[in-house]
Design a protein that fits this description.
The complex is a heterodimer of chains A (about 375) and B (about 375). With about 375 residues, chain A is α/β, with parallel strands linked by helices. Helices cover about 20% and strands about 30% of the residues of chain A. Chain A contains nine helices and 28 strands. In chain A, the strands form seven sheets. In chain A, strands 5-4-1-6-11-8-12 form a seven-stranded mixed sheet, sandwiched between helices. A five-stranded parallel sheet of chain A has the order 14-17-20-23-26, with no helix packed on it. In chain A, strands 15-18-21-24-27 form a five-stranded parallel sheet, with no helix packed on it. By secondary structure, chain B is of the alpha/beta class. Chain B contains eight helices and 31 strands. In chain B, strands 1, 4, 5, 8, 10, 11, 12, 13 and 14 form a nine-stranded mixed sheet that branches. In chain B, strands 18-21-24-27-30-31 form a six-stranded mixed sheet. Classes of the chains: A alpha/beta (about 375), B alpha/beta (about 375). Chain A: One of its GO terms (biological process) is glycogen biosynthetic process.
């Protein structure tokens, strides 16, 4: 895998994440107690042996750059290659113009100067644990221009809504793209992971600028679909797409099923993240905790059920937290009752004693809110 | 450029009284407090006190300790031109030999210290659990214009005969030092933390090295000799939590101290974090059947049973129907279904079989289940 470089594409289609993305890109949304969404894409590449990874930030860079640091947490703080973070050269007031193709063009030198033969492009919001070696070998063997990694699903009517689905012919070639609107249950969901030669990506970038400056990578590939040979490689493991508040909430809570978690977190391919050097979790004399993930640094004095508690959270005596996601350093004061709620980082809940959302429509408390 | 202070951390001891826990591990590498090793405390104190050059003197079973410390990156000590240097005994032009005592270990590394050209040297040991700002002690040392400053803590007078006891005058100048006195006159015990003016200590070390009668020990030889020769030595009083964890019993007690509401070793202070090597695993999972009361549990553990008043380290599995009471379970151990563990220390990577019963919560002894054997202490 040393002959492949990685690109993490932050042009995630995510207009459904509202409050969680007001201050951060999708890639930087906290996930499952101690991770951020991008940790999966990064760890997958690193675990596959890729050591040259470029991240093209489109907007709201602070939370992400703070998280990434030097890349040391993913073993990417290297003399040769390593982690490279790019920003748009010029900001456009209209986000329509802020495509990843534009970022690629502005930082084309990085892609040109990298010396790997292949490039693997991945979005951040597809949560999975995948080793790219098999896909790359398959790509080499078929000699396709592009190989797209996808997953066959049979619950497309309720899952992976708004994701891209692929039309694949008998020879395994992609002949069309569409958006999953949930009209039928069997679909081939594109994981938006592309394998191609680095030279081919350079050509695509070049060509797309002649087409339209509004074109994203997806649009560009779609446009050339008939002229180029696009192959597919099937992923059969765990996959979820975090593209709305509902999917974020449901997919997090569903991971409380330990059997499901085992498919995503594997001993041989760990998911790396930044450590916060927190002490272990302290459970008080009155704590009652059932079916929950609790991260280090939390202090639990109250009741926690079916919930995900992040690092450094404090839950006071008599407080009840049910079906909730409580992000880093939140404080839930004594006697507060919460159900089906996502509390973003640093939220303090003390005055309002009852916060109840619905499982299909959880309440989201924005970062730093005091209620 | 002259350096104001560098630290030398003595981490070569075997810790015989910790029994099988130190069979394949130096004492400073013994686990403590749910995710740490003992040595993380002095190292973190150095980092938090802005001491950026630390020599760690290793000897007994040093491989694990070396890889744990590495270049000191976990403590943020891997600075440009600074950082942690591991100093095992080495061969020189005059031959080579083991460190014969705490003073000899420093003596054999005089060239390392000289290279940094420090005004003062801080001598630490890897045996104690405490949080201390060494920079305040250095301020005291500088203000007193002392040749040596010894950190002291008040201990109950009935325990004073276990320690090195200082007798001081009203300016905190030490007038007498007694190592483990039978009839202590005072309760100010040495914490084994010293700041020496390097030029002064250097002479005493060289002299001590030539003395064939000497045990080459700071407490037994260097400090009494300095005092005898009238050097300016001061006692620096420390008021926080400090505990020697040299025995199974004290190691268990120190862990249990963390569960007390009024415990003064606050691990949750963001301004004085204790750093360690981190593990890559999920947050801890607490199942529907779990009951957890007054306990500390670390990342990656899976709790299906009952845990009361206990410390559970990273990646421990506590099976269904188990009951863990007043105990310390070290990393990666598995407590299989139905087992009952009371007042025990379970070493790392140990499997406790189904339905076994270990320890007695009303008994006096602490049970130790080690990797190599099961043994009652």
């Amino acid at each position: 895998m040393r002959d492949a470089m990685g690109i993490i594409n932050l042009h995630d289609t995510s207009n459904g994440l509202l409050e969680l993305t007001n201050h951060r890109p999708v890639a930087a949304i906290p996930f499952l107690g101690r991770y951020r969404i991008i940790d999966f894409a990064l760890s997958n590449m690193v675990n596959s042996g890729i050591v040259n990874i470029g991240i093209f930030i489109q907007e709201k860079p602070r939370p992400l750059t703070e998280h990434l640091g030097t890349g040391a947490a993913w073993n990417l703080d290297r003399k040769k290659d390593g982690l490279f973070v790019f920003y748009p050269y010029y900001n456009s007031a209209n986000s329509m113009y802020m495509t990843e193709m534009r970022s690629f063009r502005e930082n084309i030198e990085y892609i040109k100067k990298s010396n790997q033969k292949y490039v693997i492009i991945s979005p951040s919001y597809m949560i999975c644990n995948i080793n790219y070696s098999d896909a790359l070998n398959y790509h080499r063997k078929t000699g396709a221009d592009i190989t797209i990694i996808y997953k066959k699903i049979n619950d497309a009517n309720v899952n992976f809504l708004n994701c891209q689905s692929l039309e694949i012919n008998n020879e395994g070639r992609v002949i069309g793209f569409s958006t999953n609107m949930g009209e039928k249950s069997e679909k081939n969901i594109s994981m938006e992971m592309y394998i191609m030669k680095r030279e081919f990506l350079l050509q695509l970038i070049n060509k797309s600028s002649q087409l339209s400056i509004l074109y994203s990578l997806k649009d560009t590939i779609n446009c050339f679909c008939k002229e180029i040979n696009i192959n597919v490689f099937e992923h059969s493991g765990y996959l979820e797409c975090i593209n709305s508040i509902k999917t974020y909430f449901h997919k997090s809570i569903e991971l409380l099923d330990v059997e499901k978690t085992k498919q995503l977190f594997k001993k041989e391919s760990p998911i790396y993240t930044v450590t916060k050097d927190n002490p272990p979790t302290k459970y008080g004399k009155n704590a009652i905790v059932k079916n929950s993930f609790i991260a280090n640094g939390a202090v639990i004095e109250g009741v926690v059920k079916n919930s995900i508690i992040f690092r450094g959270v404090k839950i006071g005596t008599g407080a009840v937290v049910k079906n909730c996601i409580i992000m880093g350093k939140c404080v839930i004061a004594e006697g507060v009752y919460m159900e089906n709620t996502i509390a973003d980082k640093h939220t303090v809940i003390s005055r309002v004693k009852k916060i109840i959302g619905y499982y299909d429509e959880p309440i989201v408390l924005e970062k730093n809110s005091i209620v | 450029m002259k350096k104001e202070i560098i630290a030398m951390l003595l981490a070569g001891g075997k810790g015989t009284r910790l029994g099988p826990l130190t069979k394949k591990l130096a004492k400073p590498a013994v686990y403590f407090g749910g995710k740490y090793r003992i040595i993380d405390f002095p190292l973190s104190n150095c980092a938090n006190s802005h001491i950026d050059i630390v020599g760690v003197l290793t000897q007994y079973e040093s491989i694990l300790l070396n890889s744990h410390i590495g270049v000191g990156a976990n403590w943020g000590l891997n600075t440009l031109k600074g950082g942690v240097t591991i100093l095992p005994p080495r061969e020189t032009e005059q031959g080579g030999q083991w460190y014969r005592g705490t003073a000899d270990a420093i003596y054999q590394n005089i060239d390392f210290i000289d290279n940094h050209n420090p005004e003062n040297v801080l001598i630490l040991s890897g045996d104690h659990i405490y949080k201390m700002d060494y920079s305040l002690m250095l301020d005291f040392h500088t203000e007193k214009e002392g040749d040596a400053t010894i950190a002291v803590i008040e201990v109950p007078i009935k325990e004073a005969s276990r320690f090195g006891i200082m007798n001081t005058d009203e300016t905190n100048r030490i007038c007498e030092f007694e190592e483990k006195p039978q009839y202590p006159q005072n309760n100010l015990a040495s914490m084994g933390i010293y700041i020496f003016k390097w030029s002064v200590l250097r002479d005493f070390l060289c002299e001590d090295a030539k003395d064939s009668q000497s045990e080459h020990d700071f407490g037994k030889n260097i400090i009494p000799k300095m005092l005898h020769e009238g050097k300016r030595m001061f006692a620096y009083k420390f008021n926080g939590y400090w505990k020697d964890v040299g025995t199974i019993e004290s190691l268990w007690e120190a862990n249990m101290d963390l569960l007390k509401d009024d415990n003064s070793l606050n691990l949750y202070d963001n301004n004085w974090k204790i750093y360690t090597d981190n593990v890559e695993c999920l947050p801890q999972y607490v199942s529907n059947d779990a009951v957890i009361k007054n306990s500390i549990i670390s990342q990656g553990s899976m709790i299906y049973g009952e845990v009361h008043n206990s410390i559970i380290f990273s990646e421990v599995y506590i099976g269904k129907g188990t009951k863990v009471v007043d105990s310390v379970i070290m990393p990666k151990s598995r407590i299989e279904d139905g087992a009952i563990i009371e007042k025990s220390i379970v070493d790392s990577e140990v499997v406790i079989n189904k339905n076994s019963k270990i320890g007695n919560k009303d008994g006096k002894e602490i049970f130790l289940i080690s990797q190599c054997e099961t043994e009652e202490i």
